[in-house]
Specification:
Length: about 350
């Protein structure tokens, strides 16, 4: 049988980034031993604050080229508040990567693995289960460099909503809904009652919805969505939204299921994808061996699905089931979730669960 090798560029980055990617690569290496006809090649590359301090460049050309030439990128986290560019902004090569690889859709699945992990009452395992799709190349963040009035008493940021950008992210959201095959319902989260750019976004969403007759769709204002996510998260299947709304709502969503250490993400482009936890580099706990690697492992499961090979899809299911099994015991938690396990202990538990099948 032909052996298919998937090349993964591993960018550990800063803070807890290398800790969570190392844990995840160890788990993927274990899974690889269960697969037939498929192997992985993991190549680590320099990036982030460490590289900026060493060479003056946070995303070296060689690292970017490796990302372009790999089947996917597994990223930890980048940037630490104490190291900044001369203009005062943080080192954030992940944003450059997103822009240069045109990763337009941030796919963020939210799943409750154990009732104890949610601050919400009366939700059992699997009852909070939705996906937030965030437009990642335009919206309010595309105008992040403010325009200042001549007398410097006013600053303006612009929200850019394009037909092309909206069509592609809405199509991605419907495709996610189709693939999940649950309620196949997509909700556009907007502010069309106030912002005319969002009326435009709504019109485009409604047109795209017609391309997916097997799915249903609806709209919800962003303020109401924040309320419903807390009061009645079961109403959502797939949500799609503008860049900054997505940024804010994804932290709220992560809070419903245990926090940032439980929130995976996949940044999807036309022919590139970066998989990373939704959290940052958490410098306050870096180097202590207590980072929660679950979000990164769940991101790796998304990566395996994205490879769209029968064996990697099976591998993703094996990984999710091992994580589920480990988390079904509420004492299997790292300190961010009130537990006592260290990163390597919870990683060992996932590897053991994979071994037991
Ligand atoms: P960013 O702006 O890049 O999202 P941030 O510093 O605002 O980053 P995070 O680093 O995402 O925020 O996380 C905030 C805090 O949550 C961290 O300082 C850390 O205490 C905790 N945290 C985040 N991720 C993890 C994790 N994987 N394991 C344990 N604790 C975490």
């Amino acid at each position: 049988m032909n052996q298919k090798q998937f090349t993964v560029a591993v960018l550990g980055g800063d803070g807890i980034g290398p800790e969570v990617t190392t844990a995840t690569v160890n788990v993927l290496k274990k899974i690889e031993t269960n697969l037939s006809g498929v192997s992985f090649q993991f190549n680590e590359h320099l990036v982030g604050v460490g590289e900026y301090l060493r060479s003056g460049v946070a995303l070296p050309d060689s690292t970017f080229a490796a990302c372009q030439n790999s089947d996917a990128v597994l990223l930890g986290a980048m940037g630490i508040p104490s190291v900044r560019y001369p203009d005062g902004t943080e080192i954030a090569p992940q944003l450059e990567l997103r822009e240069r690889l045109q990763l337009f859709g941030g796919v963020r699945p939210i799943e409750l693995f154990h009732p104890d992990d949610s601050p919400l009452k009366n939700y059992s395992t699997g009852e909070i289960d939705f996906v937030l799709v965030r437009e990642s190349t335009e919206g309010l963040f595309s105008g992040r460099d403010a325009t200042f009035a001549a007398d410097a008493t006013e600053a303006t940021n612009v929200m850019r909503i394009s037909q092309h950008g909206t069509e592609r992210v809405c199509r991605l959201a419907f495709e996610v809904a189709r693939k999940r095959n649950k309620r196949k319902h997509v909700t556009l989260i907007d502010k069309a009652n106030v912002l005319s750019a969002m009326v435009f976004m709504r019109e485009i969403f409604d047109e795209v919805a017609k391309e997916f007759p097997d799915c249903t769709s609806s709209h919800c204002y962003v303020d109401a969505a924040a309320l419903f996510m807390v009061r009645d998260p079961k109403r959502f299947d797939v949500m799609v939204t503008e860049n900054m709304f997505g940024d804010i709502l994804s932290d709220l969503a992560a809070g419903l299921v245990g926090g940032m250490g439980m929130a995976p993400s996949g940044d999807i482009g036309v022919d590139a994808a970066v998989f990373q936890p939704s959290h940052g580099s958490a410098p306050d706990i870096a180097g202590q061996g207590i980072a929660n690697p679950i979000a990164t492992m769940l991101s790796a499961a998304m990566m395996l699905e994205w490879f769209a090979h029968d064996e990697t899809i099976r591998a993703a299911a094996l990984l999710r089931s091992a994580i589920s099994k480990v988390l079904s015991n509420p004492s299997n938690r790292t300190p961010d979730m009130g537990g006592k396990l260290k990163t390597d202990q919870i990683t060992r538990s996932v590897i053991d669960a994979l071994q037991q099948g």
